[in-house]
Every structure is written in structure tokens, then in C-alpha cells.
Amino acid sequence: MFVERFMAWSAQAGATQRSAAVCKLAQAYVHQYVAADDLKATEQVFTLYLQDPDMLVRAALAQALAPSEHLPKCVIWGFLEDVSAVAEPIYAVSPRLNCGDLAAGLNRNCAKIEAAIARRYDLDDDCVRTIVERGTAAGVLALLENQAITIGHGLLQDCATRFGDDVAVRNALLQRDDLPPATRQSLVQSLTNVLTLWAGDWGVEDRPSFAHMACDAVNRASVRIAEEAQTDDLEGYVAHLLNTEQLTPGLLLRALVSGQFELIEQAFAQLSGQSAPRVRSILESGRKAAFEALFRKTGLPVGLYAVFAAGIEAWLVAEDEVDEANVLAAMLVAAEGDSHVDGATYALLGRMAGEAHWEASQTYQRQLLLAAA
What is the pLDDT of residues 137-150, one digit of tens each? Predict the structure, then answer.
């Protein structure tokens, strides 16, 4: 009698009234306020409402019933077969879905449903891998924002490879503390490429200057990433730079000025084929002949030997009195006195000197403002 009366009333009620009434019934069902004798009849009402002519009514009912832990699977399947607006809340939170149900949802190729599944706290590894490898940007973004899910380094790299040009995905990746250094650097490079293309499209007049700025920005970021990387990650990070042809003399000069000796050690080791401990011993010993032999094995331009040697010697002399300006000054003196140093290298050292001077001026200005406050 309950079902007949409810459905007879529904036939005369408007969509807003039907939605309010059936959702109230659904909330009572979810919180187990429905008497045991009325459970079957209540579930029959839900089954009949799967055919309600108004999609908004069906979507509201799906939203209300989604958290239920005892809703019959036949009703669940009815919602899942409906349009995405109705199926989405079920895919998002229903505890009644198994791995097969979620896999079927991902196969619908619907960005909204994919994102709903990606926000679940109980995703298995197969679903995570499917979203990363075949999903949309919306699904990958939802997965990255899901703090209940652990994503391995390899899958994070896949996210960056597929959607490094997507602003939202790129930002979500860069905000992660567990992002591998190589992946972080590739995203920085991707962003720089986008900006360079933008400059070309908008007709930036001084394109060579912009290209230098872009290259310097990537190198600065790459050195900073190495600075923040764990020691165990540094070997793989340097290998990434080498394999992507980004382990350039310019980057290594910046690393030397910044005192990033671990990066220099790994770079020289991989370029020369020597072990990292062997390279470290040569750099720390200050033996010029040994360093010259090592430098030749790296394949770096011979004209840069004097500049690198001057920088390393300046750091060794400085010991605990770290002063990047003095190191850079020593490298500039070496460059001026060596005819083998090309114009591009000297120009880079000049830009680095200008950056250092600007940063020192900014620091001085902040100190004046603090003193005046």
C-alpha cells in the first residue's frame, strides 16, 4: 500500500515536490530510520524513481542515496546506467562500488565521471594507473588533489609528460612535496617553452635577449631544484639533465657560483665516467693537474677550464666564508685573461654578475626599510 500511495501522489506532484519528497525518504533510508517492514517497499520506490521523467529528480535522488551502505546493487546499477549528472554522485562516494564498477565508469570516457572516481579515497592501483595513463586532464587533476591516494614517481612523471602544458595540472604537480626533481625540472622547462612560444606569437622585438632570459631562468630553477633534492635523488636528476641535453656549461657555471658542489660532482662523474667519490676527491684536493685531466674527460669546452678552475679554487679558499660574489669575480677575472673563453660564456658571466648585483641591492633596500620602520 505504501508504494501505491507514494507513486499515486507522485503522478500528480511537480518535479520540485517529487524531488523533495523522495530525497527525504532517501535520507531516512540512508540513516536507517526506515522500519524493517518498510525497507522493501522503500527500495521499490527508489527503483520506480529511476524512471522519473525529470533528470534533476533522478540526480537529486542519486545524491541522497550515494552514501548508503545497503542500497541494493540493482538500484545502484540503474543510477550508473543513467546520464553522467545522475551517475556522477554514485561514482564519487558510493561504498557499494567494486573495482569492476569503477573500471567500467572510467571506460565511459566522461571527464566528470572520471574526476568523480579520481576523488574517491579507496581507489586501487589499477584505477590510479588507468586515470594517469588514459584519463583526461580533469581526471588527472582530481587525482593529484586527492590526498588519500599515493602516486608513485613514475606515474607523476607520466602526468607531467601528458599534461605538462595544462596550467592546472602543472601547478598541482609543482605544489607536491613528493615530486621527483627530474619531473619538477621538466615542468619548468615546459613552462619556459610555452612562454617562449608566447613571446614569438606576440612579436617580442628583442628575441635573442628573451631567449637568454628564458635559458637563464631554466638554469636558475634547475640549480635550485638540485639544491632542494635529496642526495639519493641527485644522481637520477643529473642523468635526466644529461639525457635531455640540459646539462650545459651554462647550468654548470651557475651551479658552481651557487656552491652546488654535489651537482657539480655528479655532473662531472657522469660526463667523465669517473665515480662520484673519485670526482669529489679531485675537487676537494685542489690538485690542478688532476682537475685538468678530469675536466678533459668530461668533454666540456676546453676554453672553460680556466673559469671552472678559478671558481673551484675560490670556493676552496673561502672555506666557511661563503661569498658567491667573490667566486663570480674570480671566474670573471679568469675569463678576461683567457683568450679561449668565447663571447657567449663571458656574456653569461656578465649576466650572472648583474643578477648578483641586483639581488644585493634588493637586500640592502629591504634592510633600509626595516631600519626605518
Answer: 999 999 999 999 99
